[in-house]
Design brief:
One of its GO terms (molecular function) is 2-succinyl-6-hydroxy-2,4-cyclohexadiene-1-carboxylate synthase activity. By secondary structure, this protein is of the alpha/beta class. The protein is built from eleven helices and six strands. It has a domain of 169 residues: 3-Layer(aba) Sandwich (Rossmann fold). 45% of the residues lie in helices and 13% in strands. Strands 2-1-3-4-5-6 form a six-stranded parallel β-sheet, with helices on both faces.
Length: 242
Protein backbone atom coordinates (compact mmCIF):
# COMPACT_ATOMS: atom_id res chain seq x y z
CA UNK A 1 0.00 0.00 0.00
CA UNK A 2 1.32 3.41 -1.01
CA UNK A 3 -0.05 6.50 0.76
CA UNK A 4 -0.16 10.11 -0.50
CA UNK A 5 -0.95 12.89 2.00
CA UNK A 6 -2.76 16.19 1.50
CA UNK A 7 -1.53 19.77 1.31
CA UNK A 8 0.37 20.84 4.46
CA UNK A 9 0.74 17.20 5.53
CA UNK A 10 3.36 14.49 5.39
CA UNK A 11 3.57 10.73 5.36
CA UNK A 12 3.40 10.77 9.15
CA UNK A 13 -0.28 11.72 8.87
CA UNK A 14 -1.03 8.11 7.92
CA UNK A 15 0.52 6.58 11.06
CA UNK A 16 -2.83 5.69 12.76
CA UNK A 17 -4.02 3.89 9.62
CA UNK A 18 -0.72 2.12 9.04
CA UNK A 19 -0.82 0.76 12.59
CA UNK A 20 -4.00 -1.07 11.59
CA UNK A 21 -2.76 -2.32 8.22
CA UNK A 22 0.99 -2.89 8.33
CA UNK A 23 0.75 -6.36 9.86
CA UNK A 24 -1.13 -7.57 6.77
CA UNK A 25 0.40 -5.42 4.02
CA UNK A 26 3.72 -3.65 3.45
CA UNK A 27 3.14 0.11 3.60
CA UNK A 28 5.01 3.02 2.02
CA UNK A 29 4.28 6.70 2.66
CA UNK A 30 5.56 9.32 0.23
CA UNK A 31 6.34 12.87 1.31
CA UNK A 32 5.22 14.91 -1.69
CA UNK A 33 7.35 17.82 -2.99
CA UNK A 34 7.55 20.76 -0.59
CA UNK A 35 6.41 18.60 2.35
CA UNK A 36 8.04 16.64 5.16
CA UNK A 37 11.35 15.06 4.19
CA UNK A 38 10.77 16.32 0.62
CA UNK A 39 10.40 19.98 1.58
CA UNK A 40 13.43 20.96 -0.56
CA UNK A 41 12.12 19.10 -3.63
CA UNK A 42 10.16 21.14 -6.15
CA UNK A 43 7.43 20.17 -8.62
CA UNK A 44 6.72 21.67 -12.02
CA UNK A 45 3.20 20.30 -12.35
CA UNK A 46 1.12 17.13 -12.39
CA UNK A 47 3.34 15.31 -14.87
CA UNK A 48 6.45 16.09 -12.84
CA UNK A 49 4.95 14.89 -9.56
CA UNK A 50 3.60 11.80 -11.30
CA UNK A 51 7.08 10.98 -12.56
CA UNK A 52 8.53 11.48 -9.08
CA UNK A 53 5.98 9.05 -7.64
CA UNK A 54 6.80 6.49 -10.33
CA UNK A 55 10.52 6.89 -9.67
CA UNK A 56 10.02 6.24 -5.95
CA UNK A 57 8.02 3.08 -6.65
CA UNK A 58 10.82 1.79 -8.85
CA UNK A 59 13.45 2.83 -6.31
CA UNK A 60 11.76 0.64 -3.69
CA UNK A 61 11.36 -2.28 -6.08
CA UNK A 62 7.57 -2.30 -5.79
CA UNK A 63 5.87 -4.61 -8.28
CA UNK A 64 2.17 -4.46 -7.30
CA UNK A 65 0.56 -1.71 -5.27
CA UNK A 66 -2.67 -0.13 -4.09
CA UNK A 67 -2.53 3.68 -4.03
CA UNK A 68 -4.35 5.57 -1.26
CA UNK A 69 -4.54 9.36 -1.43
CA UNK A 70 -6.14 12.12 0.62
CA UNK A 71 -7.31 15.48 -0.82
CA UNK A 72 -4.35 16.78 -2.88
CA UNK A 73 -2.87 13.29 -2.62
CA UNK A 74 -6.13 11.81 -3.92
CA UNK A 75 -6.03 14.14 -6.92
CA UNK A 76 -2.44 13.16 -7.62
CA UNK A 77 -3.38 9.50 -7.11
CA UNK A 78 -6.20 9.62 -9.65
CA UNK A 79 -3.94 11.48 -12.11
CA UNK A 80 -1.29 8.78 -11.64
CA UNK A 81 -3.86 6.03 -12.20
CA UNK A 82 -5.22 7.63 -15.37
CA UNK A 83 -1.85 8.30 -17.02
CA UNK A 84 0.00 5.68 -19.11
CA UNK A 85 2.56 3.64 -17.18
CA UNK A 86 5.39 1.47 -18.55
CA UNK A 87 4.28 -2.09 -19.24
CA UNK A 88 7.29 -3.46 -17.38
CA UNK A 89 6.95 -1.07 -14.43
CA UNK A 90 5.12 -1.45 -11.11
CA UNK A 91 1.50 -2.53 -11.52
CA UNK A 92 -1.26 -0.46 -9.93
CA UNK A 93 -3.98 -2.90 -8.82
CA UNK A 94 -6.32 -0.65 -6.82
CA UNK A 95 -7.04 3.00 -5.99
CA UNK A 96 -8.58 4.52 -2.86
CA UNK A 97 -9.55 8.19 -2.93
CA UNK A 98 -10.32 10.16 0.22
CA UNK A 99 -11.90 13.57 -0.32
CA UNK A 100 -10.38 14.11 -3.77
CA UNK A 101 -11.87 16.39 -6.45
CA UNK A 102 -12.31 14.95 -9.95
CA UNK A 103 -11.63 18.28 -11.71
CA UNK A 104 -13.34 21.60 -12.39
CA UNK A 105 -15.29 22.72 -15.45
CA UNK A 106 -13.57 25.41 -17.50
CA UNK A 107 -15.95 28.09 -16.20
CA UNK A 108 -14.71 27.64 -12.60
CA UNK A 109 -10.98 27.41 -13.24
CA UNK A 110 -10.03 31.10 -13.26
CA UNK A 111 -11.65 31.73 -9.88
CA UNK A 112 -9.96 28.67 -8.37
CA UNK A 113 -6.57 29.67 -9.76
CA UNK A 114 -6.93 33.14 -8.24
CA UNK A 115 -7.94 31.62 -4.89
CA UNK A 116 -4.97 29.23 -4.87
CA UNK A 117 -2.60 32.07 -5.77
CA UNK A 118 -3.99 34.08 -2.85
CA UNK A 119 -3.19 31.22 -0.46
CA UNK A 120 0.19 30.58 -2.05
CA UNK A 121 1.20 34.17 -1.40
CA UNK A 122 0.08 33.90 2.20
CA UNK A 123 2.03 30.66 2.64
CA UNK A 124 5.11 32.46 1.29
CA UNK A 125 5.16 35.42 3.65
CA UNK A 126 2.40 35.21 6.26
CA UNK A 127 2.86 34.39 9.96
CA UNK A 128 2.25 30.62 10.18
CA UNK A 129 -0.16 30.64 13.13
CA UNK A 130 -2.46 33.24 11.58
CA UNK A 131 -2.40 31.83 8.05
CA UNK A 132 -3.04 28.28 9.25
CA UNK A 133 -5.82 29.49 11.53
CA UNK A 134 -7.48 31.15 8.53
CA UNK A 135 -6.85 28.09 6.33
CA UNK A 136 -8.68 25.77 8.70
CA UNK A 137 -11.65 28.15 8.87
CA UNK A 138 -12.53 27.36 5.26
CA UNK A 139 -15.93 25.68 4.71
CA UNK A 140 -14.37 22.31 3.80
CA UNK A 141 -13.03 22.11 7.38
CA UNK A 142 -16.30 23.18 9.02
CA UNK A 143 -16.63 19.89 10.90
CA UNK A 144 -13.47 20.53 12.94
CA UNK A 145 -13.91 21.75 16.49
CA UNK A 146 -11.59 24.30 18.12
CA UNK A 147 -9.32 21.65 19.63
CA UNK A 148 -8.95 19.82 16.32
CA UNK A 149 -8.13 23.07 14.52
CA UNK A 150 -5.50 24.01 17.08
CA UNK A 151 -3.94 20.55 16.89
CA UNK A 152 -3.61 20.85 13.11
CA UNK A 153 -2.14 24.36 13.40
CA UNK A 154 0.43 23.10 15.89
CA UNK A 155 1.30 20.11 13.70
CA UNK A 156 1.55 22.09 10.47
CA UNK A 157 3.36 25.28 11.47
CA UNK A 158 6.82 23.71 11.17
CA UNK A 159 6.00 22.58 7.61
CA UNK A 160 4.96 26.08 6.64
CA UNK A 161 6.91 27.87 3.91
CA UNK A 162 7.68 28.42 0.23
CA UNK A 163 7.67 24.71 -0.65
CA UNK A 164 3.97 24.52 0.27
CA UNK A 165 3.22 27.56 -1.87
CA UNK A 166 5.13 26.13 -4.83
CA UNK A 167 3.32 22.78 -4.60
CA UNK A 168 -0.07 24.49 -4.34
CA UNK A 169 0.66 26.45 -7.50
CA UNK A 170 2.03 23.40 -9.36
CA UNK A 171 -0.92 21.14 -8.57
CA UNK A 172 -3.77 23.63 -8.33
CA UNK A 173 -7.18 22.12 -8.94
CA UNK A 174 -7.50 24.75 -11.68
CA UNK A 175 -4.71 22.97 -13.60
CA UNK A 176 -6.00 19.43 -13.11
CA UNK A 177 -7.83 17.75 -15.98
CA UNK A 178 -11.32 16.39 -15.30
CA UNK A 179 -10.59 12.75 -14.50
CA UNK A 180 -13.92 11.16 -13.58
CA UNK A 181 -14.61 9.60 -16.97
CA UNK A 182 -11.08 8.17 -17.14
CA UNK A 183 -11.43 6.74 -13.63
CA UNK A 184 -14.57 4.92 -14.70
CA UNK A 185 -12.66 3.24 -17.53
CA UNK A 186 -9.76 1.97 -15.42
CA UNK A 187 -9.30 -1.83 -15.43
CA UNK A 188 -8.92 -1.86 -11.64
CA UNK A 189 -11.15 -1.23 -8.62
CA UNK A 190 -11.55 2.36 -7.43
CA UNK A 191 -13.10 3.18 -4.06
CA UNK A 192 -14.02 6.61 -2.69
CA UNK A 193 -14.07 7.39 1.04
CA UNK A 194 -15.63 10.56 2.44
CA UNK A 195 -16.92 11.86 5.74
CA UNK A 196 -20.59 12.06 6.67
CA UNK A 197 -20.14 15.75 7.57
CA UNK A 198 -18.24 16.64 4.39
CA UNK A 199 -21.24 17.79 2.33
CA UNK A 200 -19.27 18.98 -0.71
CA UNK A 201 -17.32 15.77 -1.22
CA UNK A 202 -20.23 13.53 -0.29
CA UNK A 203 -22.12 15.13 -3.18
CA UNK A 204 -19.17 14.66 -5.53
CA UNK A 205 -18.86 11.02 -4.50
CA UNK A 206 -22.58 10.37 -4.85
CA UNK A 207 -22.58 11.67 -8.42
CA UNK A 208 -19.46 9.74 -9.45
CA UNK A 209 -20.85 6.18 -9.93
CA UNK A 210 -17.79 4.93 -8.01
CA UNK A 211 -18.05 2.62 -5.01
CA UNK A 212 -18.30 4.89 -1.96
CA UNK A 213 -17.90 4.51 1.79
CA UNK A 214 -19.39 7.33 3.89
CA UNK A 215 -17.76 7.39 7.32
CA UNK A 216 -19.98 8.59 10.20
CA UNK A 217 -18.93 11.44 12.49
CA UNK A 218 -16.16 12.56 10.13
CA UNK A 219 -15.54 15.60 7.99
CA UNK A 220 -13.05 16.12 5.17
CA UNK A 221 -10.04 14.43 6.79
CA UNK A 222 -11.56 11.05 7.57
CA UNK A 223 -8.32 9.18 8.32
CA UNK A 224 -7.40 11.76 10.98
CA UNK A 225 -10.86 12.14 12.52
CA UNK A 226 -11.94 8.48 12.41
CA UNK A 227 -8.81 6.36 11.79
CA UNK A 228 -10.42 3.13 13.02
CA UNK A 229 -13.42 3.45 10.70
CA UNK A 230 -11.24 4.56 7.80
CA UNK A 231 -8.98 1.56 8.36
CA UNK A 232 -11.99 -0.77 8.46
CA UNK A 233 -13.23 0.59 5.11
CA UNK A 234 -9.76 0.21 3.65
CA UNK A 235 -9.44 -3.35 4.95
CA UNK A 236 -12.78 -4.24 3.37
CA UNK A 237 -11.54 -2.91 0.02
CA UNK A 238 -8.30 -4.89 0.31
CA UNK A 239 -10.03 -8.25 0.84
CA UNK A 240 -10.31 -8.67 -2.94
CA UNK A 241 -6.51 -8.77 -3.27
CA UNK A 242 -5.96 -11.60 -0.80
Amino acid sequence: MVFLHGLLGSGLDWAPVIRHCSSAYPCLTIDLPGHGQSRDITALGFDDVNQQISDILCQYGIRRYVLIGYSMGARLGMYHACMPRPANGPTLVGLVLEGGHFGLPESQRAARLANDEHWAQRFMVGPPEQVLSDWYQQPVFASLDAAQRQYLITQRRDLFGPGIAQMLRATSLAKQPVLLAALGELPLPVHYICGEKDAKFRALAASSALEVSVIPAAGHNVHAEQPDLFSAALAQFLIQFQ
